[in-house]
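2024-03-11 09:14:02 INFO queue: dequeued item SRPBCC family protein, len=163
2024-03-11 09:14:02 INFO validating residues
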Amino acid sequence: MTTFDKAQQYLRGGGVDPNAAVHAIAHRTVHATADTLYDVLSDLASWPAQVRPTISAMAVSGPIAAGTRFDWTQPGGTAHSTLAVVDPGREVSWHGRAMWFTVVHRNVITPGPDSTCTMTSEESMDGVGIRLLYPPAKLERELQAWLADFATAAERRSGRRAD
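2024-03-11 09:14:37 INFO prediction written
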């Protein structure tokens, strides 16, 4: 099972848990600059109202920096997370616990041409029974929805829409 220290190591090393029971990765082109997308992604407190309506509560315990804890509630329960990598304009990643599962979530932004960027979201989940409750295909669908919500929020903020 992934420990707190291992999760930190994976994220700081540029990945998620390679041995986790569930793993998925998704990519999306966003019609907004990398800085605009980063601003949306790093504004955790605004996620429930402006990005992910499925998040019903968000409590952030400090500045957006490595080591800051945040608790958030989505359908299925509350996750207790800690930011591990915060690289302005490039990455916001964290690890945490939801129920008895360990989750490692990485979000990387790559600048593209014509004021676009690509967001890559990768997540690993580990713990007893996780494949039954959250099979890889379900996690991949969730990551696609995650990316769509952040892309829409960044594009709205920039005044652009996908073609």
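2024-03-11 09:14:37 INFO annotate: The beta strands are 22-30, 57-60, 69-74, 77-87, 91-98, 101-111, 117-126.
2024-03-11 09:14:38 INFO item closed
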